[in-house]
Design brief:
By secondary structure, this protein is an all-alpha fold. The chain has one domain. 66% of the residues lie in helices and 0% in strands. It contains five helices and no strands.
């Protein structure tokens, strides 16, 4: 995937696909907390996303970004995003109960926030919100 040429046509921009891949990965990790049979698939998706983000970061964004992606430190905003996804999923499944901790999902939100912010900084474009931002 080459980022050095950025088309003005929205459908050729890889960023929305990367953003949605992060959103799907977080949803899968949270869903795996509700349905254990999804765990292996969710973890595989998470690993693939992390490798893709690190490869792109290493190629275009620099070693400092790659290091930050390798050791994500979720903040309260990242955990709140996961809680939002958990709440929406639980409501859709009609399962009440307290939100569970989803550390892998929180790390994925953190990694994706870092990656997409740096990608937009590099490309000098505005960073759009995620589905979990409301």
């Amino acid at each position: 995937m080459a980022f050095t040429y950025r088309s003005h046509r929205h459908e050729y921009d890889p960023e929305p696909a990367l953003r949605h891949a992060a959103e799907v990965t977080v949803a899968a990790l949270v869903a795996a907390g509700h349905e254990r049979t999804l765990r292996t698939t969710a973890e595989t998706l998470c690993s693939a996303l992390a490798r893709l983000q690190c490869t792109i970061a290493d190629t275009y964004l620099g070693k400092g970004v790659t290091r930050r992606l390798s050791s994500p430190r979720p903040d309260m905003g990242d955990r709140h995003a996961v809680d939002t996804v958990d709440r929406l999923l639980a409501a859709g499944l009609e399962r009440a109960g307290p939100a569970a901790a989803h550390p892998a999902a929180a790390e994925t939100v953190c990694r994706s926030r870092i990656f997409l912010t740096e990608l937009h900084h590099w490309s000098r474009t505005r960073t759009p919100g995620h589905e979990w931002d409301g």
